[in-house]
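Notes taken during the Thursday session

The instructor put the following on the board and asked us to keep it in front of us for the whole hour. The protein is Sorting nexin. We were told not to look anything up and to reason only from what is written here. First, the residues (567 in total):
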Amino acid sequence: MALKGRALYDFRSENKEEISIQQDEDLVIFSETSLDGWLQGQNSRGETGLFPASYVEIIRSGPSSSPAGSPSTQVSLYDRSNVANLSRSAEGSGFFPNQGSFEEDDDDDWDDWDDGCTVVEEPRAGELGTNGHPPLNLSYPGAYPSQHMAFRPKAALERQDSLASAKRGSVVGRNLNRFSCFVRSGVEAFILGDVPMMAKIAETYSIEMGPRGPQWKASPHPFSCSVEDPTKQTKFKGIKSYISYKLTPTHIGSPVYRRYKHFDWLYNRLLHKFTVISVPHLPEKQATGRFEEDFIEKRKRRLILWMDHMTSHPVLSQYEGFQHFLSCLDAKQWKMGKRRAEKDEMVGASFLLTFQIPTEHQDLQDVEDRVDTFKAFSKKMDDSVLQLSTVASELVRKHVGGFRKEFQKLGNAFQAISHAFQMDPPFSSEALNSAISHTGRTYEAVGEMFAEQPKNDLFQMLDMLSLYQGLLSNFPDIIHLQKGAFAKVKESQRMSDEGRMVQDEADGIRRRCRVVGFALQAEMNHFHQRRELDFKHMMQSYLRQQILFYQRVGQQLERALRMYDSL
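Then, after some discussion, the predicted structure tokens were revealed:
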């Protein structure tokens, strides 16, 4: 039942899920039950969305009203902020994609490779972070809720900053918008020092200074991996069917066979772990026609591109879960490796602890300017990639439809001329009639050549453009992480200048912002390196195929022309 409410404070929305409210504004509240400190309702302007529960009071018919989602006693503004700052779970917010799939062969409850429960580590009671808040722990597998969860107490961990910071009177505030990727990814918690320092970090990823700035240190053991032989397989005595792909990594040599759902599982682990890296998107799913030849061929081409980007990335290629995906042959070992990846603690915010950054000083304003330049570039590139993709798709449609029909019409018209010339035998020239008829058939063949040509050039171009559309779509959120970090640095420095924060804490926030900044710049650098290689290859391949195509068309026309030479 909808309830009447009144805004206690002003609140300005920061995304499309929220609505702005003003102090003393009358509201309609759809439910008194709050979702992690947020209510859904309607403001006086008819806008519907979310707003902080502690910023409103419910108007009851009784003698008193109380703030929504809280006891009847009034709470302080600081408490209201804390209530509003509670984050959604990762699953509920939709930050991590669903591991499931609407493909028929991907909804079988992982029957052949997952039969255990997920163990989730629970933070110790009373453990506080740098800013006096409970530490945000996005590193445990609870971000993917399971029906069979077991909890175990978490071992004592050293924090990034002293626990004494919890006793300070003034702390850097948390973002009010708990749905932003800066919060959901855990980067805010990392910047504020609320991510536990592990006693031992088994994996490290190095960033070094290159000629164009920070770059990922090259993998010491580079490799590639082929994707071949998509084959239809069955299980449960033919009840279920699926496509199996043969993967052969060059550094291992022996092939493994993987289904699309295995790729999908790996992709979700990559998204969960690598907070500041643009993970290439998998080829799209399809509910029907999954076993049609054209779809299988298209998916194979795009998996090849996906695999090429994975193996060429200095960080993603070293990921233990990826190596397990490429090498494991034994079913029991596969399950163990899968569970190990799902229990990986160095994910999300904790992943940032694995970086080793250069000692060179970088002015944060220079870094912010560099990020702004890349932001403008990526937006322009995204628009141009979309434009080229639209034009190429339209050209494919014309090749398959319009061009083929027009050349067929022209060929039929030539054939009609040839038939007409045969109507008066005494004046009929058999050689001329034959040459014109052959010309008609040639143009019909040219129409078929146009219809088949996109498989040789435009399809490959669209595959590459689709890959880059996915990569570019990742960067707004990644850049938002850096922007959020910059904002925390500026806020902490202002508080330090005003004497409301000790300089050591402000320096810690700046130091952790440098980690995020170096990682983003390294990812930007890698993106540009791959972009130059990929688009060079794409344009060369397209032009070569176009030249070969028109050479074949020219050869057909030259043969038709020679038939007139002997007349």
